[in-house]
Every structure is written in structure tokens, then in C-alpha cells.
Design a protein that fits this description.
Elements lengths: L1 H17 L9 E6 L2 E3 L2 H5 L10 E3 L2 E2 L6 E5 L8 E6 L7 E5 L4 E3 L6 E5 L1 E3 L8 E6 L4 E2 L2 E3 L4 H11 L3 E5 L3 E6 L3 H5 L7 H18 L18 E5 L7 E3 L4 E3 L12 H8 L17 H14 L3 H4 L7 H14 L9 H15 L1 H15 L11 H13 L1 E2 L1 H6 L6 H9 L3 E5 H4 L5 H7 L8 E3 H5 L4 E9 L10 E6 L2 E7 L4 E8 L1 E5 L9 E3 L3 E4 L3 E10 L3 H4 L2 E5 L5 E8 L4 E6 L12 E8 L5 E8 L6 E6 L5 E6 L5 E3 L2 E2 L6 E7 L2 E4 L8 E5 L5 E8 L4 E6 L12 E8 L5 E8 L6 E6 L5 E6 L5 E3 L2 E2 L6 E7 L2 E4 L8 H10 L8 H11 L4 H10 L1 H11 L5 E2 L2 E7 L5 E8 L4 E6 L11 E8 L5 E8 L8 E6 ...
Parallel strand pairs: 2-10, 13-14, 15-16, 16-18, 19-20, 22-29
Antiparallel strand pairs: 1-11, 3-9, 4-12, 5-8, 5-11, 6-7, 6-9, 14-15, 17-18, 20-21, 22-25, 23-24, 23-26, 26-28, 27-29, 30-31, 30-37, 31-32, 32-35, 33-34, 33-36, 36-39, 37-38, 39-40, 41-42, 41-48, 42-43, 43-46, 44-45, 44-47, 47-50, 48-49, 50-51, 52-63, 53-54, 53-60, 54-55, 55-58, 56-57, 56-59, ...
Helix pairs in contact: 1-3, 6-7, 9-10, 11-12, 12-14, 19-20, 20-22
Length: 1132
């Protein structure tokens, strides 16, 4: 018997130690100190739930229905509210309670477990709530199991009390288990024991936090994790099969058996805790984003088995992939219209490409965005920010993929990716032939049929294709001669000059390539395509060039929403065509406004006369579209009974006024509450004395600053009381008066101003400032105004949607000196619409932003056309030479008249030179004034873009005529004229800009050449006469010794045909006599002639027989015969 009693005592002790967190004994007062947590303000702002407000602390008891618990909070230094909730297996049977510093009684109508919500500190206080409560003998001890507790003791306590609930507790979650699930918990199917359950969910939560980029030791508050616990329960009155909420996650049942199996549901529900503001938007990710976490856990936990047992990667993967491809490629739907399953595969494919680290980086950087004061989730669509942050972390550009699936990504983000030389990536659906996709997936060990790859990944496949590019542009000449450059990151894969509206690029390796921005010579364009996909043997790409208009930033769309955010109406400006389109859309904008006006749109002319008015009631509305002619000075008045439902370019208009008035200006709409024409700013002092005054006279571009009172405030003796300062558009101070409180010299100061200038008034008592007689509602000592064409704009009322501000916002997206050419073009075209003075100011302000675009245009064609004529006149204005350029056929026709150009000139009267792209001379002739050319010359040269033409004429002003015969434009002439041929015409260059060939670039243009080899006494001992027109080489060798002083090889001649066969070779020994030789050898394009001469510098001569010009000689030289002459390919 004693042994039995002893065992019972031990058992009771074990129950107390292992199964009971709060030691509660019947009919006694229990004291419990609760922990507190620091409120994660940054995580809250980021919209991250993370189970934060699930956290709660048990009292260690189960309370019977209707039983009262006396309780109070006894720490006098803790001032915050303490509240809790009775938890049952049905939220309809739950109830909440509050605890004060006085004894109070709490109860629930149903048997329940009381939990105290964890308090979150915001003031840095370390004080904690301390509870005292009286436990009665009717209450049961709550069985609690923590990791590594004694499971037997836990169930013994549960069984001995027949307790309604048990609690499984971890540092990451707590699970309140109904009695109904006790036996399942005791005999788990998918887990070894309760410790295994705890370990499993701890792993889930740990991985999810890691994927989300959260850690307890993070320096940034928006990345710092919090030691909170998820609360898991059963809830008979919940939603769906399972649900996740702000206070709990649960199974919709009076059982939570689903959480005691390793299933998809719990993984899915906990994943909801890691969502953000990006969930809504054009691409809704509800019930999708959380599955990235769930699938990632399954993949890590199951390993290779995930492809058989996994939910996303399992046996249904093939059918779901086919569904995605059907929506994408067959139905041609944007991703916003896809099923949740297809969206999941898309997001998982992107994540698989970048890895978990980049996914965590995305989450961290997105939360950083949310920490900004002006954060607006609508500005950051999910695929835009994925594109941005994945790119930053991996240097991959996902734009080809997101464009393919038609995901919303801003042009600015796309330009940013291209400017940073990120490597483009694409789905294998877009770069692998359909028939080979399955085998490629296996070969490359890709997980799905839509996997995303970079070009290096598929290079080993050896797949290649051709691409036909069609340039759809109104004026092809504006891009003719530009480079079509394809790149893979920093690597240039193809670089060709655009010569035709349709071009074919052959033999490109399969993959996706970035098309470098093609900047027009005269206009700025948006290109419809910036990437080319090589998928099949033959591929086609149409690139449409749309002229950028500045009106894109000037025009606005005012959306008028109604009940449940229905689109009630819309107003769109088309200021290029001086009109506004008013659309009345909804037939029932708001049912509660039946027979009542809900919103009104009215337009007034410059005389304030109404020219259009629509009063729209809440019901029975007739839709319609109404174009209204407007011009600067007109006003648009919108009256909406619910002004919070007004949107401007998609952004909520910050106003509580039911009436909104805009004025039409040359540069867009201006809100009337932000502008004013001439104003008077009164500056008062002590006892409201008139200390000073500022009056604008903007008609005459000036401001008058009057300093009036000699003693504005006696208490400010020798101290500055107020300051008036005016700054120009460069923020340079052009006027400043610091006024002390006493001994002031009055005076009037007129100051010239213009739009862009700022007026700064600093007053130590700002309540004494008046604007047009009205008190300025500000407590700031500094008031700042900006001068605009419409008057003064106070900075605290500035219209952030004004055209100038939109330009500034766009300019901030440019973070590089290269790229962003479309954005730069947009800024330039918008600035060009401003009045001249303001335009010049803005051009100067944004000069650094615009310069790369201007540089891209600089050096382009000066004279556009295919046909040009240069006529050289001499004595009595007789033409003695001319050049006719036919650039369409790449020909230059030279004509020279026989006779003297001008007998009065005894030296070079004119010169014509033609050089290739390296600076090699193709043709060069000085025309001596008093020397006759023996016969007429008619000669045609092949030319191409990159070649140079130089014309010198001693009497260029009157006797050199240069003309664009296509446009009849006269080209101004000077003594020396140098031009570069481009694909679109001629570009003026300086003489020093014409390159000089490096040794390996040397080419000679001609048809007849002589190679002469000299020996002792400068006697010629061998020669080669090249006649390229007749394709022959005449070889001559003199009998006798070349040079007796040389006992070995003195010179060699070797001639090879185009295939490398030696057709002649001879080694000339210095002291060995040769037999005379005369031989004619065949020569063709590609033949090689190699000469070695020991005394080449003095005794080897190579020259153009026609012109007499010398060719380069060295001890050993090899010349290659070309269709136009000789090319030096080796020398030493």
C-alpha cells in the first residue's frame, strides 16, 4: 500500500512538473506575470500578419460553463489595458473580457479555456502586467504539453480530469486541442509523437520566416522577426475547410484533426500569414501567394518524393501545366485571367529560377518600400516588384517572361532592367520548340514544362534559328543606319546596321535576347518590342515604333466612382487636340441617390460662361460620351457628393471638398486650390504692426519686397525676426533680407522673377503672416512659394500631379547615365510643350538627364538621302570633276574632265579622297591648277556606310557645289569638307575624326602592283607584277647572285592560292647564282603573297603602279589578294 501511495505522489508531482505550465491549486489566489512584446510597427505597416496578434497566454485552467473567475491586474506601473478571450471549439460560444486593477469577475456561458491577449509595447516600457486570480475547486487544470515533456503524464492528467481541452505549446505556436481529438493526439497517424508534431510545425514556421526574410537579429525594423506564437484551434463556426485570420488559424469543425495529419491544409493556412499589400491589384493572388510557402516546404520536407506526393509538384502537375499553357498560349489570356493553379506555377517557376535567397530579398525590399511615408501599394504591382528585386539580387531580367504572360510591369522598371545589363530569361515555352520541350526538361533536369531558363542553360542543346525582324515605322529613314544590337546581359550577340525595313538575322542560338534601344535621328520613339525570342527554325518579330508625345504626361484621367467603387463616369483630357472627353458610364452610380444629383461635371470658357454641364443622379442614368472643345483658360468643375471616390490617374484625390475645380493651361490641368495669380503677403510684428510686405506683379515678372517698420519687434533687438529670400531655378539666392527686431532701414526692393523661382519667408512668429488679408494656416516658421505661369504655388499645397511634378517623378526613376532612352525621350517631348521661357529653364534643369539621349542622337546623319552630287568648278566656272553618290546601290561615280582645272593655280587647286571605314585610301587625287589631266576619267567605286569622302577646293565658296539631289538641299561648302557615309546619308566630320588604320587594318585599293627585290649595288634580282584585273602574276628572276655578302637565305617568295596550296616558292641564297626565270601564275581573290627580304627597308619596294603610292614593307610581309586590291595580313 505504501508503495502504491508513493507512486501516486510521484505521479502527481510529474503531472505538476511536466503537464502544467501555471501551477494552480484549488481555492487559492494565483499570481502570474505575463510577458509583453514590442509592437512590430513596421511589420504592421507592411501588412504582414505573421500570426503576430495570435499571441496569447493561458491561465492554466479550464472554466466550467457559468463559473466565475475573480481576477485583477496588480502592477501599478503597468498602465495599458489587459484583455482576453474564452476559447471553445466554436467561436459562437467564445466571449471576450477585460481585466482592471480592481477585483472583477469574468465568466463564459460555455466551458472554455481563458487566454490573455499578449500586450504589445510602443513606449519602450519594460513594465509587465501581473495578474492575480482566484481558482475554485470547480475549475480544471489545463493539460499542457511542451517539447520533451512526459507524454504519459500529460495524458494522465487529461484523463484523470476528463478535461475538455489540452494545450500543445511551442515557442512558435500553440494548439488548443478539443477532447474530441485526444485519442488521435495520443495515437498519431502521420507523426511519431507530440514532439514530432511540435518539430514539424516549428520547421514550417521557421522556413516560412526564412523565406520571408525575417530574423530576430535583423537591424532593420521591417525585417526583424517577433517571438510571437500562432494560435491553432478548432472552430465549428469558422469558414471553409480551414481558415487563417488575424487572431487565429483553425479548422472549420469542432475538431482540429486536420492539423494532426501532414496535409496541405495547415501549410496553406499558415502561408496566409506571410502575405502583403501586393495580394490585390490587377493580378489577384488570393489563395495563391501562400501556396508558394506551402510548396516550398513540401519540396524541402519530401525531397524527390515531392514529384509523386507533393500537392503542386505531384502527379497532377502535368494536367495543371497544360491548363496554364492553354490559357497562356492558346487562349492568349493575360495572367490576371488565369486560374489560381496557373498563377501558382508562374510564381514557383520564377522562384525556382532565382532561389530562396532572392525570394527572401524580395520580401525584405518590398517591406522597405512599405516603410516609406508616401507608399501606395497601387504603385507597385506584384510582377513589377518581383522583376525589380529579383533582378537586383540575381542580375536576371524577367521582363521577357512577364511581358509574355502579360503581367503589369511599368515601362520605367523594364528600362531599369535593360539599363543595368541584366541577363534576359524566358520560359522554355518561349525558347524551346514544342516538340522538344519534354526531352529538354529531362535533359536539363528542369522541374516543370514552364521552367524559366537563361541562355547559358540551353546553349549546350545546340539549337539555332533565324529571326526575321520587321521595323514598323512611319519614316524608316529615321532609324536607317542605326544599330540593331542584340545582347545577353553585357555580351553582344549580334550587331548589324539597319539597312532595310525587313532584316533577317541568321543562325542565332535559341534563347531570348535584349534589343538595345534604337533612338531615332529626329524623333523619339517607344518600341513595341525590346526582346527577341529564338524558339523555332524560323522566327518573326515585328517592332513597331510609336512617336513619343509629351501629352502623355500632360493629359489626365479623372475617374468618378460610385457605390461599391463602380465606375460612374470619367473625364479624359486630350489637350493636343484641345478637347476633353466626358464619359457618363454607370446607369446606377448610387441607388441611394434616386432622384437626387450624385455628381456634376461642368465646363466653363475663359469668360466663366458654362459651355457644358451634366448633372447625374444616382439612378436611371443614360450613358454617353461627350467630347468638349477646350483651350487654356477654360475651367472644369466636378462636384461629387462623395469626393473620396474621385481618382486622378488612378490615385485617390486628397480632398474633402465636394467641389473640385481645374484650370486648363498649355501644360495640363492645374487645381484651382493650389494656384493664385498676384498675391500680397503681409508680414506683421509686435502689436500687429506692419513689419513688411511682399507683392507679386507677375504680369511684369517681378516681386516687390517692402521693408516697412523700423521696429517690428522690440524683443528681437540684435536678433533676426523675419527673412525674405528669393531663389532662382537653380536654387541660387538672388535676393535676401534678414530683418532684425529693431533699427531697421525701410525700403522697397523690386526683384525680377520667372516661373521656377521660389520665394522663402521665414518668420519667428508665423501666426503673424497674412495672404491676401487672410491668416496663413501654418505653424511652420518657413513658408515657401514657387512662381509658376499661373501664379504662386505654396509648397504645402503643391499639386503633386502637375506636369512639372510628373516630369520630376519620372526623372527620379533614371539611375544611370546610360539607357532609359524612352523615359528620357518622354521627358524631352513633354518639356518641348512648355512656353519657351519655362521650356529653356526645364531643359537646363534636366540637362544631365537628357544629355545621354542627345549624345545618342548626336553624330547621326546631317543630310538624309540616297543621292548626292559634288561638282568642282574651275576657271570660268567650267566643271572639271564631279562625284555622284548613289547610296541606295552603294556606288560613287567619279568623273574628271581632261584639261587644266585653273591655270592661275600652280599647285593643288582641289583634292578628292575616298577612304574606307578604317581610313585606308581607296582613291586620292590632287588636281593641280595648271596641269592638264590627259583624258576624261569615268570610274565607279563601291562604297558603304562607314566610308569617308573628303573634298578640298581652293575656291570653295563659289566653285564647289554640293547638293542633296533627293531633297534639293544645298550643302554648305568650305575649303575642306569631310563626310562620313551613313546608312541614311552623309554626316559631317572633322578631318581628325577620320581614323588611321592600324597595321592589321591596312588595305590597298588598286588593280596593278609591283613587288621589286633589290640586292647588291641596288640591282633588281626579282620582281612580281600583279595584274588583278586579269588575275595573273608575272614573275621575273634575273640570272646571277642576289648579294654575295650573304651566305644563306637572303630573300624568299611564296605564292599560295585561295585554298592554301603553294603554287610557287623560291628561296634566294645571297651568294648562289639563279637561272633567269619568266613565269606567269594565276591569281585569285584570297591568294597570298609572302615576301621575306633581309634588307627590306632599303631594298624591297612594293607600289601601286597606277598611283605610284608605296605599300608597307617589313622584313617579312604577307598580302592577301582581295576583289578591290591587297590586304596586309601579317608583317614582322
Amino acid at each position: 500500500m505504501r508503495k502504491i501511495i508513493g507512486m501516486c505522489v510521484i505521479l502527481l508531482i510529474l503531472v505538476g512538473v511536466y503537464s502544467y505550465k501555471t501551477d494552480v491549486r484549488a481555492e487559492e489566489v494565483v499570481t502570474k506575470e505575463l510577458y509583453t512584446l514590442v509592437k512590430p510597427v513596421a511589420l504592421d505597416k507592411a501588412g504582414l500578419s505573421r500570426g503576430i496578434y495570435h499571441d496569447r497566454q493561458d491561465l492554466g485552467i479550464i472554466m466550467p460553463a457559468g463559473e466565475e473567475l475573480e481576477i485583477r491586474q496588480v502592477n501599478p506601473n503597468y498602465k495599458d489595458t489587459v484583455s482576453g478571450r474564452f476559447i471553445t471549439a466554436d467561436s459562437k460560444e467564445d466571449s471576450t473580457f477585460q481585466i482592471t486593477s480592481s477585483w472583477g469577475k469574468i465568466k463564459n456561458n460555455y466551458t472554455a479555456v481563458p487566454f490573455i491577449y499578449t500586450s504589445f509595447r510602443t513606449d519602450g516600457s519594460k513594465e509587465k502586467p501581473v495578474l492575480e486570480y482566484r481558482v475554485t475547486n470547480k475549475m480544471k487544470k489545463l493539460p499542457i504539453y511542451q517539447a520533451n515533456n512526459n507524454e504519459t503524464a500529460f495524458f494522465q492528467l487529461w484523463d484523470s480530469q476528463d478535461a475538455e481541452y489540452g494545450l500543445v505549446l511551442s515557442d512558435k505556436f500553440q494548439m488548443i486541442v478539443p477532447k474530441k481529438d485526444k485519442e488521435l493526439l495520443r495515437k498519431l497517424k502521420d507523426f511519431k509523437n507530440i514532439d514530432d508534431v511540435i518539430s514539424y510545425y516549428n520547421q514550417v514556421i521557421t522556413l516560412y520566416c526564412k523565406l520571408d526574410g525575417l530574423s530576430l537579429d535583423a537591424k532593420e525594423d521591417y525585417n526583424r522577426d517577433i517571438a510571437t506564437k500562432f494560435f491553432i484551434r478548432a472552430n465549428k463556426s469558422g469558414g471553409g475547410y480551414m481558415y487563417y485570420g488575424g487572431e487565429e488559424t483553425a479548422e472549420n469543425n469542432d475538431s482540429l484533426a486536420g492539423w494532426l495529419y501532414k496535409g496541405w491544409g495547415p501549410l496553406h493556412e499558415i502561408g496566409h500569414a506571410y502575405q502583403g499589400p501586393f495580394m490585390s491589384g490587377e493580378v489577384s493572388l488570393g489563395e495563391v501567394w501562400n501556396n508558394i510557402y506551402a510548396a516550398s516546404f513540401e519540396e524541402q520536407y519530401m525531397g524527390d518524393d515531392v514529384f509523386q506526393k507533393g500537392t503542386i509538384y505531384g502527379t497532377s502537375l502535368k494536367s495543371r501545366t497544360n491548363e496554364m499553357i492553354q490559357s497562356w498560349k492558346v487562349a492568349n489570356l493575360p495572367i490576371s485571367k488565369w486560374s489560381g493553379s496557373s498563377k501558382e506555377q508562374t510564381l514557383m517557376a520564377m522562384k525556382e529560377k532565382v532561389g530562396d535567397e532572392a525570394f527572401a530579398y524580395f520580401n525584405q525590399q518590398y517591406r522597405k518600400l512599405t516603410s516609406q511615408a508616401d507608399f501606395n501599394a497601387a504603385d507597385y504591382p506584384i510582377f513589377q516588384v518581383l522583376n525589380k528585386f529579383y533582378g537586383e539580387k540575381t542580375n536576371f531580367d524577367f521582363t521577357p517572361f512577364t511581358d509574355s504572360i502579360k503581367a503589369p510591369v511599368s515601362n520605367a522598371q523594364k528600362e531599369q532592367n535593360r539599363s543595368k545589363d541584366y541577363r534576359p530569361v524566358a520560359s522554355i515555352v518561349d525558347v524551346i520548340p514544342d516538340s522538344k520541350r519534354e526531352s529538354v526538361k529531362q535533359q536539363l533536369k528542369l522541374k516543370t514544362d514552364v521552367a524559366i531558363v537563361d541562355n547559358d542553360q540551353i546553349a549546350s542543346l545546340g539549337l539555332k534559328g533565324n529571326v526575321t525582324v520587321n521595323f514598323d515605322i512611319a519614316d524608316f529613314k529615321d532609324i536607317k543606319g542605326k544599330h540593331l544590337k542584340l545582347s545577353d546581359g553585357k555580351k553582344i550577340v549580334k550587331d548589324v546596321i539597319i539597312t532595310n525595313p525587313t532584316m533577317k538575322l541568321d543562325n542565332l542560338p535559341n534563347g531570348v535576347y535584349t534589343i538595345e534601344d534604337i533612338v531615332g535621328n529626329t524623333s523619339n520613339y517607344n518600341m513595341s518590342e525590346h526582346y527577341v525570342f529564338v524558339k523555332d527554325a524560323e522566327n518573326n518579330l515585328k517592332v513597331t515604333f510609336t512617336k513619343i508625345t509629351g501629352y502623355k504626361l500632360i493629359d489626365r484621367t479623372i475617374d468618378i466612382l460610385g457605390c461599391d467603387y463602380v465606375q460612374a463616369g470619367k473625364l479624359v483630357t486630350d489637350l493636343k487636340n484641345n478637347k476633353v472627353i466626358v464619359d457618363i458610364i454607370a446607369e446606377t452610380p448610387h441607388p441611394r441617390y434616386e432622384n437626387k444629383v450624385y455628381y456634376t461635371i461642368e465646363i466653363f470658357n475663359e469668360k466663366k460662361e458654362s459651355v457644358f454641364k451634366k448633372e447625374i443622379q444616382g439612378t436611371n442614368v443614360t450613358p454617353g460620351s461627350y467630347p468638349v472643345a477646350v483651350k487654356p483658360g477654360y475651367q472644369i468643375k466636378i462636384v461629387h457628393d462623395e469626393p473620396q471616390l474621385l481618382r486622378e490617374n488612378g490615385v485617390t484625390i486628397s480632398t474633402t471638398n465636394k467641389t473640385l475645380v481645374y484650370t486648363v493651361t498649355t501644360t495640363g490641368l492645374v487645381k484651382n486650390d493650389t494656384i493664385g495669380l498676384d498675391r500680397t503677403i503681409d508680414i506683421f510684428g509686435c502689436d500687429y504692426v506692419q513689419a513688411g510686405k511682399l507683392v507679386t506683379d507677375l504680369k511684369n515678372n517681378k516681386v516687390i519686397v517692402d521693408i516697412i517698420a523700423e521696429t517690428p519687434h522690440w524683443r528681437y533687438a540684435n536678433k533676426v525676426y523675419y527673412t525674405v529670400e528669393i531663389l532662382n531655378e537653380k536654387q541660387e539666392s538672388i535676393f535676401k533680407k534678414e530683418i532684425e527686431g529693431t533699427n531697421v532701414t525701410p525700403g522697397s526692393n523690386p526683384v525680377t522673377v520667372k516661373p521656377g523661382y521660389q520665394i522663402k519667408i521665414v518668420h519667428d512668429e508665423p501666426q503673424l503672416l497674412r495672404e491676401n488679408g487672410v491668416n496663413i494656416p501654418t505653424s511652420n516658421k518657413t513658408v515657401l512659394y514657387t512662381v509658376t505661369e499661373m501664379g504662386l504655388v505654396r509648397s504645402d499645397l503643391v499639386d503633386k500631379s502637375s506636369t512639372v511634378d510628373r516630369i520630376a517623378k519620372l526623372a527620379k526613376t533614371i539611375d544611370s547615365n546610360d539607357g532609359y532612352y524612352e523615359t528620357r525621350g518622354q521627358i524631352l517631348e513633354t518639356i518641348n510643350l512648355f512656353p519657351e521661357a519655362q521650356k529653356q529653364d526645364l531643359l537646363e534643369q534636366y540637362q544631365e538627364i537628357l544629355q545621354p539621349l542627345l549624345d545618342k542622337k548626336a553624330g547621326t546623319t546631317d543630310f538624309i538621302g540616297d543621292d548626292f552630287q559634288f561638282s568642282l568648278l574651275g576657271l570660268s566656272n567650267n566643271k572639271f570633276a564631279s562625284i555622284d553618290l548613289d547610296l541606295a546601290n552603294n556606288k560613287a561615280k567619279l568623273w574628271v574632265r581632261n584639261g587644266q582645272p585653273h591655270v592661275y593655280f600652280t599647285n593643288a587647286y582641289a583634292t578628292i579622297q575616298l577612304k574606307d571605314e578604317f581610313g585606308n585610301v581607296i582613291y586620292s587625287q590632287d588636281y593641280i591648277g595648271n596641269i592638264s589631266d590627259p583624258a576624261d576619267v569615268n570610274k565607279t567605286f563601291d562604297v558603304k556606310p562607314g566610308y569617308y569622302i573628303s573634298v578640298m577646293h581652293r575656291e570653295a565658296d563659289s566653285r564647289l557645289q554640293m547638293k542633296n539631289t533627293e531633297s534639293n538641299e544645298i550643302i554648305p561648302s568650305q575649303t575642306e569638307n569631310h563626310f562620313k557615309i551613313t546608312a541614311t546619308g552623309l554626316q559631317i566630320v572633322k578631318k581628325e575624326d577620320i581614323p588611321k588604320p592600324t597595321e592589321n587594318q591596312i588595305k590597298y585599293y588598286g588593280q596593278q602592283y609591283d613587288f621589286s627585290l633589290y640586292g647588291l649595288g641596288n640591282n633588281k634580282f626579282a620582281s612580281i607584277g600583279l595584274d588583278l584585273a586579269n588575275k595573273q602574276a608575272k614573275l621575273w628572276v634575273r640570272s646571277g647572285q642576289p648579294h654575295v655578302y650573304f651566305q644563306d637565305s637572303y630573300a624568299t617568295i611564296k605564292i599560295e592560292d585561295a585554298t592554301g596550296n603553294v603554287i610557287f616558292t623560291k628561296d634566294f641564297l645571297g651568294n648562289v647564282a639563279n637561272t633567269e626565270l619568266n613565269k606567269t601564275l594565276p591569281i585569285e581573290s584570297g591568294s597570298l603573297i609572302t615576301i621575306m627580304h633581309r634588307e627590306a627597308a632599303e631594298r624591297l619596294a612594293i607600289q601601286d603602279v597606277t598611283t605610284g603610292s608605296k605599300l608597307l614593307v617589313k622584313q617579312t610581309v604577307t598580302y592577301k589578294v582581295t576583289s578591290t586590291g591587297l590586304h596586309l595580313i601579317a608583317s614582322k
